[in-house]
Amino acid sequence: MAKKTTLLGAFMLSVALAGAAAAETPTADTVVATVNGAPVTLGQMIATRASLPPQYQQLPDDVLFKGILDQLVQQTALMQEAEPKLTPAQKVQLENDQRSAISAFALEAVVKAAVTDEALQAAYDAKYKDFKPGTEYHAAHILVDSEEKANDIKKQIEGGVEFADAAKTHGTDGTAASGGDLGWFGPGMMVKPFEEAVVAMKAGDLNGPVKTDFGWHLIKLIETRDQSKPTLDDVRDELAGEIEQKAVIDHVEALTKAAKIEKPGEGIDPAVLKDETLLSK
Q1: How far is CA 276 from CA 175, 215, 271, 273, in A?
Q2: I need a labelling partner for 73 at 20 to 30 A (CA). Which of 100, 130, 237, 281 fits?
Q3: pTM value?
């Protein structure tokens, strides 16, 4: 009898230890709290932490754990209080928010699949296969609202006033503070009359007044350089954006084309969108 009791005790102990080990292995479904019977799970806590700004993610684990748990408990209590009292407008907004969030999740997968190293290399090769080096220009300008002012300032510069000083004194756009410096630019980056004037200049030349839709410009060409072919790393973000945009457009068009879509509301007066009182009826 004693032997059976010993075996039974060992069996019960092994079961208890196995249960304890299982309990010590948390999963996303592990319940970390309940609020009036509603569970708060470890998965919800992990997702909350992942959405925090980087500086908050640097906090000690114990501080984050307690803070996030308290936040989710409080939010759950508030949700339980507010949910039965939601207005029609709030319910509609929640539906819109959910639709928007799920759509964003869907597009994340589309973008991830589209933007690959192979796709980036192919886009780079296609865009720059016929690249021909051109000229880039470094210029400064002074923008004013009349030809008369521009000619007067030009006489001052020709009389010895530094171009940068004149730009700081008379310039009317955001470059005035930096002496009118426009930095480097290539073909097609400036409006046509401005670009044509710059292309005809040599380094050190003063030109103008040149009229554009922005006003009257005095232009000083500081220097030029040969335009070099960018590397893939130089344009990686630009190409990724182009690939993303095309992938999203193509996916959405294909998806909507395959869907059965009916629009019985197209005959409604568009002005009804302004009538927010409909949300309370």
Answers
A1: 45, 44, 11, 7
A2: 100
A3: 0.60
